[in-house]
Specification:
Blueprint: E1 2-6, H1 18-32, E2 36-42, E3 54-55, E4 60-63, E5 69-72, E6 74-78, E7 85-89, H2 92-95, E8 102-103, E9 106-107, H3 111-129, E10 135-139, H4 145-153, E11 163-168, E12 176-177, H5 180-185, E13 198-199, E14 202-204, H6 205-212, E15 215-218, H7 221-226, H8 230-233, H9 237-242, E16 247-249, H10 277-289, E17 300-304, H11 313-326, E18 330-335, H12 339-351, E19 356-360, H13 364-373, E20 376-379, H14 389-395, E21 399-403, H15 406-411, E22 425-427, H16 432-448, H17 450-461, H18 468-486
Parallel strand pairs: 1-2, 1-10, 2-7, 10-11, 11-15, 15-16, 17-18, 17-20, 18-19, 20-21, 21-22
Antiparallel strand pairs: 3-6, 4-5, 6-7, 8-9, 12-14, 13-14
Helix pairs in contact: 1-18, 3-4, 4-6, 10-13, 11-12, 11-16
Bound molecules: alpha-D-glucopyranose.
Alpha-D-glucopyranose (GLC) binds near residues 18, 22, 388 and 407.
Length: about 475
């Protein structure tokens, strides 16, 4: 099959969240299965063009509303370690700035134009390349107008038969914009009704995509169910319920080559499920790197996340004092986001010098050492479509402590003391009591039941989270959608 992926982020070139890792990983496995996959993404100011980038002689012509045509140079490269062609669209007025979605003062005000442009550019790229894909696979709201454009603008043209798959990585972000974008994108006014793009007086990109994509996927089975109910539906649960038959949950994979404690170049010492001595040395390296008391007996609890409401770490910081009063444990936090929460974590570290370390920001090497050196990984998300960091944590032998939601349920098996099985610890409600209780339970597992802890750690490390299974599931979806359209 010929498959074109269009996405606002793409690892390793530009990453804000897990979506980038998915779009950087899945195409390689699909290619290895024999498909021809290409990827398109904006050339943001922060993307470094190395020697592998070549510029197409002719610029792409992007056909917008009112007969306006924009010319945009195309830069071509490949996804590292594969033959997957990647096309970066250069249009500095929209993408030249460093930040992807938001600058210092909040969301970029022209995100509607920027991403409507990306959607139209994705379609026009096919004509530019003279390559007609059977599937266009869009990711999240920034590319969600692609199905809408295909259905309303491509009638009688070569892309008319191209099928669309839209993956929802996070339903909270929907791209709600002023109706001016319709004219800009050359979309008909009649779309601006509740039945199609309108929601609460705005043009809702994601809603349009959910209405018009041939198939919808999201990144775990549980999240696929959750978003069909009001609690997790962010106002679109009715739209998703109406399309339940076309909605599939597929749990993300991870790249086992780069995420490998036996060979990770960012780790000072290596280890495996069968020989954990390197992990202990990483623990010491972690304590030294963060000025924590060097003590290999105490459990280290880490959290690495964007400091947003979604991630639930406000509750973690609230219970941390009581937790540290009750057990000899250490905490490492890496992340940035809401200024108030950043400050609360900074204060926590000041109150517990030598026991709590906080890095506001993101340093890849320290992230890897933290995953490798800690014993538990705390992820109390209010909602979590899939979550990737808990998968990385398990690979590196840190047991995730997760709230029972979304992909966390699907990927982490809760500890059962009777059978001594599991790959982490679950709790249900995000309350202070239940998080504190679960943290204490984890500490006692480590301190008082080391054999059980070791069993869980081993089980976590040998889980298969590769792209093989999810890529097969995507292939099924593609096949189904093509069959469907053939009929
Ligand atoms: C978003 C979700 C996260 C998911 C990722 C990749 O960042 O919040 O749960 O793992 O997308 O699909």
């Amino acid at each position: 099959m010929r498959i074109l992926m269009s996405a606002p982020e793409l690892a390793p070139f530009v990453k804000v969240g897990g979506l980038a890792d998915v779009v950087g990983g899945l195409p390689k496995t699909l290619e290895a299965m024999g498909h021809e996959v290409r990827v398109v993404c904006p050339l943001y100011g922060c993307v470094t063009r190395d020697a592998s980038f070549t510029r197409h002689e002719k610029p792409l012509r992007v056909y917008l509303g009112g007969g306006v045509v924009y010319e945009a140079p195309i830069w071509e490269t490949v996804l590292p370690g594969s033959q997957v062609a990647v096309y970066f669209i250069e249009y500095d007025a929209y993408f030249g700035r460093q930040e992807v979605y938001d600058g210092a003062w909040g969301s970029h005000e022209d995100n509607d134009l920027r991403y409507a442009f990306l959607c139209r550019a994705t379609i026009d790229l096919c004509y530019h390349l003279d390559w007609i894909p059977e599937i266009i696979h869009a990711h999240d709201w920034p590319t969600a107008l692609i199905p809408v454009m295909l259905k309303t603008q491509e009638g009688g043209r070569p892309l008319e038969k191209t099928a669309t798959v839209l993956t929802v990585h996070n339903l909270q972000h929907q791209g709600m914009h002023h109706e001016r974008v319709l004219e800009f994108a050359g979309l008909p006014r009649w779309l601006f009704v509740q039945e199609y793009l309108e929601a609460m007086g705005a043009v809702n990109f994601l809603k349009g995509g959910l209405k018009m994509a041939d198939r919808i996927t999201t990144v775990s089975h549980t999240y696929a169910k959750e978003i069909q109910a009001p609690e997790y539906g962010f106002g679109l649960d009715d739209v998703l319920r109406a399309r339940a038959a076309d909605l599939t949950g597929i749990v993300n994979g991870i790249d086992l080559v780069t995420c490998n404690p036996e060979a990770d170049p960012l780790l000072p010492f290596h280890f495996s499920a069968h020989d954990l001595s390197g992990k202990l040395r990483c623990k010491q390296a972690l304590q030294e790197a963060f000025d924590l008391q060097v003590n290999l007996e105490v459990p280290i609890f880490s959290a690495i996340a964007r400091l947003f409401w979604q991630k639930g770490l406000d509750v973690f910081v609230d219970v941390a004092d009581s937790f540290l009063d009750k057990v000899p444990a250490q905490i490492v936090l890496i992340g940035s986001g809401e200024p108030e929460l950043e400050e609360q974590f900074r204060q926590l570290a000041l109150r517990h010098k030598g026991r709590v370390a906080v890095l506001i920001g993101y340093k890849p090497q320290l992230v890897h050492i933290t995953q490798a050196g800690s014993n538990f990984f705390v992820m109390p998300s209010r909602f979590e479509p899939c979550g990737l960091t808990q998968l990385y944590a398990m690979r590196y032998g840190s047991l995730p402590i997760v709230r029972e939601t979304g992909g966390l349920v699907d990927t982490v098996q809760s500890y059962n003391p009777k059978t001594q099985t599991g790959t982490g610890l679950h709790f249900r409600d995000l309350t202070h009591d239940s998080l504190l209780h679960t943290l204490l339970w984890a500490a006692s597992l480590y301190l008082e039941h080391p054999k059980a802890y070791a069993k869980l750690q081993h089980a976590a490390m040998i889980q298969d989270f590769s792209w093989k299974v999810p890529a097969k599931a995507y292939e099924e979806v593609y096949k189904e959608v093509l069959g469907l359209r053939g009929r």
